[in-house]
C-alpha cells in the first residue's frame, strides 16, 4: 500500500504588459516656421504603413506624411515646419493599421 504523496511548490504569476501606441515630438516648447520637428512613435503595428496627418485648430489638413514602421512597431521622421503657417495649436494624428495616436504642438 502507498499513501498519498504531496509536495509544496511556490511560483510567481506575472501579468503581461500592454504596450500602447504613442506619438510625440522632440520638443515640449513652441515651434517656429522653419524649425525641424522630429515626430516619434512607439508601440504601433510592426512593419506597417504609418500615416501622419498634421491638422490646424479647425481640423483642416496641413500635410500628410507616409512611411513604414520598424519591425518593433516604431517610427521616426523629420518634418520642416513650413513658413506661412499661422501661430496656434496644431494636432498630429498618426494611424498604423487600425490604431490611432495623437499629440499636439504649439506654433509661435
Summarize the structure.
The protein is mostly beta strands. Helices cover 0% and strands 46% of the residues.
Structure description:
The structure is a single chain. The model has no long low-confidence stretch (mean pLDDT 91). The termini are far apart. 15% of the residues are buried. The protein is 0% helix and 46% strand. The chain has 108 residues and is an all-beta fold. It has strands spanning 22-25, 36-42, 49-55, 61-68, 75-80, 88-96, 99-107. It is elongated and about 85 Å long. The strands form 2 sheets. It has a 4-stranded antiparallel β-sheet, with no helix packed on it.
Key descriptive features of the protein:
3-stranded antiparallel sheet, 46% strand, 0% helix, 108 residues, elongated, mainly beta, 4-stranded antiparallel sheet
- Report the order of strands and helices: EEEEEEE
Q: Give the strand order, joined by hyphens, for the main sheet.
A: 4-3-6-7
Which percent range fits the helix content? under 10%
- Going by helix content, strand content and strand pairing, the class is mainly beta
In percent, how much strand structure appears in the residues? over 45%
Q: What does the main sheet amount to?
A: 4 strands, antiparallel
Q: Tell me, what's the shape?
A: elongated
Amino acid at each position: 500500500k502507498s499513501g498519498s504523496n504531496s509536495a509544496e511548490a511556490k511560483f510567481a504569476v506575472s501579468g503581461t504588459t500592454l504596450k500602447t501606441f504613442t506619438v510625440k515630438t522632440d520638443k515640449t516648447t513652441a515651434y517656429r516656421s522653419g524649425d525641424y520637428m522630429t515626430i516619434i512613435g512607439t508601440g504601433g503595428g510592426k512593419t506597417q504603413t504609418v500615416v501622419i496627418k498634421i491638422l490646424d485648430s479647425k481640423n483642416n489638413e496641413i500635410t500628410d506624411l507616409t512611411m513604414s514602421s520598424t519591425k518593433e512597431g516604431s517610427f521616426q521622421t523629420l518634418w520642416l515646419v513650413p513658413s506661412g503657417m499661422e501661430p496656434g495649436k496644431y494636432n498630429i494624428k498618426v494611424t498604423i493599421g487600425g490604431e490611432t495616436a495623437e499629440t499636439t504642438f504649439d506654433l509661435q
